[in-house]
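Here we describe the complex-level prediction in full. Unlike the single-chain runs in Section 2.1, the three entities below were treated as one system.
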Amino acid sequence: MNNTTKSIQYYRIVRIIRKVLFYALVILLCTIFLSPFIVMVTTSLKTSADAFTIPVKVLPRKWVFTNYPAAFEQIPYMRYMRNTAVITICCVAGQLLITPLVGYSLAKIKWGGVRIISALLMATMMIPYTVTMVPIYRIWSKLGLTGTYAPLIIPSFFGNSFYIIMMRQFIMGIPDSLMEAATIDGCWELKKFTLIVLPLTKPALTTIGIYAFLGAWSDYLAPLIYINKPDRYTLSIGLQSFFNLYTIDWTALMAAATIFVLPVIILFIFFQRNFVEGVATTGLKA
Amino acid sequence: MKRKSFMAAICMTGMVASLLAGCGGTSTPEDKEGTAATTQAEEKKEGSEPVTITMWYGIGGDESDMMLSIIDEYNKSQDEIFVDALSVTDSSKMIVAMSSGEGPDVIRSSNPTALAYLKQGLIEDLNAYVEKDGFDTSVYYQKSLEANTADGHLAALPSTAYTIQMYYNKDILEQLGYTEPPTTMEEMYQMAVEATILDDSGNIDVLGYPLFPLASARQELVYGFGGRWWDEAGNPTPLRQENLDSLTYNVKYREQFGIDKVASFITTANTNRYTEKDMFFAGKQLFRFDGPWLTTMMESYDSDVNYGITMIPGATEADRGCARFESNCYVLSGTSKNKEAAWKFMKDYTTSEFVKKEVIGLANLPAYMPLFEDEEVLAVPAFKEFIDTLKAENAVQFPAISNLSEYVAIIDEYLDYIYNGSMTPEEGLKELEQRANSITLE
Amino acid sequence: MKRTKMTRRARNNINGFLFALPWIIGFTCFSIYPLLASLYYSFSSFNAVTDPKWVGLANYQNILKDMLVWKSLKNTLFMAFVSTPINLCLAVCMAYIVNKSFRGKGAARTIFFMPSIIPVVASTMIWIWMFDPTYGMINTALHWFGIQGPAWLNNPQFTKWALLLMGSWNTGTTMLICLAALQDVPMSYYESAQLDGANAFQIFFRITLPNIAHILVYQAILNVINAFQYFTQVYVIITANSGVKNTTTSGGPANSILMYPLYIFYNAFSYMKMGKASAMAWLLFIIIAILTAIMVKVTRKTSEVAGSE
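The structure predicted for the assembly as a whole is:
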């Protein structure tokens, strides 16, 4: 009897210790994962002298907000923001327009190209951008469109393998019975698509839209290659203006980075579920 | 119903796009400047129709504003040419732009870049222009012309130039009992070892040997021993006795004071370079191989270091002053649509009062001969010393090879191995020699 | 009856084709044509302004001789094969954690996932600042424990580890996929294992791991391919380290972070050797194709094994 209570107590203690250790691990991991964000925000609120004083303190010794106006002053931030927004919106629109069409074709129309296109979709995901970079650059160069936003935007209007697979997966899940009714009515394909399928794809469209937004907002290599006039820079290219000839204005740069990251985080907070779903569906089933 | 909301969403995004475009436009100060510049250009057009040419320069930050103001003054000074100047700091951008015919008419670049462009056929060979105008190029300092010439073809007109000198901390030297700076490398090493101070935990407090900046350690610290990275014909020759000597001293110093300690000092020095906390300004570096701008920077940071400037020591006293000589210059793009106007701008600008402002503003040495005697130029601190060094004619120039950047990348890699002790200087240079021959030096 | 079926098939073909047309055009212009053109370019010499001139195998010979190609390939392979297991392990661990029910689970999941959506340029800049040997947060934190941190991005022995550390911050996507996979494992498996008296480790290695193995292999392939595209991070780091100078085409300290795509980029847009860049690109393509084929084979095997259990 005494023994059992002892062992129960023992197990209880073990369980508590385990729980504490588990929480400690989670908190530690979370701190590590959050620390870059913390550093970014706190550095942006430090004076330059403060950031460069030993010992380094996590929190500012003196809280200042001057880095934010300074960031806007040092580089044409609003202009870069606008450029980035224009490109991003066009890219998102392109993807949203095209992806359902192609996804529908692969998921619901029984035609000869389905198998080969599905295979090719997978294959194109394996082609690194670096491989096709030079010829694609030459295409735009021959068309005289380098230096414009065309090379950044137009490819979005031809779909992206990743999103198409995501959409195909989603449309496959729409029951055929819904569409059969329409077929009997003698409804033709486009009508069937727009009236029945398209409205149902809204969740997938949201997810794709978010991913397209992120992709365009963060894109670096393409703007690096194609945009050459500073007044057309996007934010990801423009942020480098903080790298001066020899020194980097870290406090202002961190302020600029904070504003750059903010829309993404806001988007994430609002659409967290879509992010998770998007990752899960494509990751698992593709 | 749902479809409608979807379409509405697309419309919304469109609207947001135009909204963003609109509101960005009104609130950007740059925008206003841009329009101001164009209206100015238009006003001038009404008068005598100036030709607009575009000019890109690879300078960012505060110096960029200075360039803009100089060009602005140039534009106001005459009404034939309007120069639209733009700071583009990424070299690949220049190439991409030129290749698609989107490039500028004139580019301000450095002489190795200009020579590489010429070799690739991206820019105009200026010989024809010089001949046609009967332009007398002897108004430029001979060395800076040579720096911009490959196989007899002139790639660019030089505007400024720079070389490297030795800055030394007088107080530290005096404490050690020396009254004069070293004239030979051996002497310098001796003083450097004596001057190096470690703190309690063995970290370096004062660095004696000029191992920082790294670019100087790769160049002047090697040239000083009589070493070179290439021969007269431009072939890579890393495995020379003199190069080996230089590296042997370099490594000896590092080993004596701790490879890690020296490396960590250099890293900190790199972070603080040209800031208030620059190691030399803070009196923590005895010798510093650097350009003429260092004095100007020291003044702007109110550094109270008691310093002197002298020529880079040599293997013997007679070999002093071996330092790199580089030139900044203006090239004429091959895709320019206003070549005549662009040429006229380059020619006028580099031989005028405006280039003087560039020289003084960037604290670079002049290339236009009359400026060597100009009082304002000579009044810039340290310029006299630097100009005297130029007259010693020991400057070292990069060879006109198009694979220079690849070669330098490899040199840097092997120097890193040698510095961190994973290779001895002999091993490193031997392997470097093999690898250097593997890249095709065209 | 038969005729209508035929026409319906034809109609389906036309409809299907038309609906997929945007992608077909895109695929032709932005995948197949560039791939073939790249192959052709790899046998020619040209810069940004001139037209390609056939030079035969010269570019490939040049690649074989150029030690920087091999150096960059070595760097990239290192990143691919060291980062992949690290990232997968971390992702599985984190997924395992957030798969448990505890208070703050949602917050933990959000925190783990968020870094992977931050624009790479921004996150790289933050990390460069964190890696600063004197004023950076990482060495400061190490200092609290009495450790003198290295000069992460300046010491060739540490640069790649810095990149790995940076990369492991972005494992959120992989974590979510692993989480979904974990949730797909039927509870009954665990229950029967528990009845058999298996401990947590046994359960993890005997039940959890085999059941998510196929997902892990697929993630490994993606991770390796991503590693072969590793560009932005190193480009930003190098620009930050060297300052904006006009002529730098550096590969970091001792070329230790000269990644293959970066060297392709330098060749194409700085050295203006587009032919050589194309040859390098094709070499990369072949390597990736081989690696993918191997990994797909491995996946089939592991999923067969998993299926048979």
